[in-house]
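Note to self: user wants both folds in one dump. Writing first protein now.
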Amino acid sequence: MVYVIAGIASGFLMSSLFICTVSITMFKSLKNTKFSSSSSPTRLNPSKIMILVTLISFPLWGIIGVILGILYAISDNQIPLDWWARPNIIFAAGIMVLTTVMITPFIILLKNFRAGIMVTSVCFMASYGWLLPELVG
């Protein structure tokens, strides 16, 4: 149960960091464009997008945190290692490899959002690779 609660806490922290990163990245990329606040009800503007990101972000990152908490529980019971003050270096390395594999296509394709993607990926690695094991321990 501790693993699941730590995963939820890491997920909620990741959600908060994700919302901040997305909002800063989106508004920075749209600073030279003109968009209407509500000229058309069907048109998506940055405010509507941020509301959707905020509503979806907390449940999504919470679920990801629960899944990673369960995976950490499995890896902690199967491969108990203590190295460099991390409860399980194999889990942290797996998070880093997973993050690198997942963000590589986005960094190549989305050149305007590279900085935001990199900040989000570092937050992901810190939240789940370091904070999750620390909260459990």
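First done. Writing the second protein, which came from a different request thread.
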Amino acid sequence: MQEIMARGMIPDETRWSSLIRYLGARREIELARKAFDYIYKLVSLDILTFNSILRLYANENDRVNFEQIIALMEKDKVRPNQFTYHCKLAIAARSGDVDEVARVLDEMKAAGYKDDEFTRVRILSPLISLIVLLSC
């Protein structure tokens, strides 16, 4: 990353988001966070980049880092979109926190987003996995 910047090449947010998603898919969590932190210091980020790192932490069920990123979004006044809410729902459902799922659903609806089939999948898949795990 520093080499890219030293050459005066500043990738746009789409490329940074793609890099973060790529690193997440490879489970290079620390490197993805370093990339996020690096670009966060340089430019104002859009929802796409925030969602890329949120998805990574939701998939890892890492609530601490997930909440840190949400706090940065709030600080920067970046408005969550439906994908952001789906990530919030997934991490709440993975932890089995039904009250948090209900709270996020209410927040999502208040923001004008609908509770559609994809939303229900983001809630039910982790809950079903949790139930299966607990029943073994």
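Dump finished. Worth passing along: The first helix runs from residue 2 to 6.
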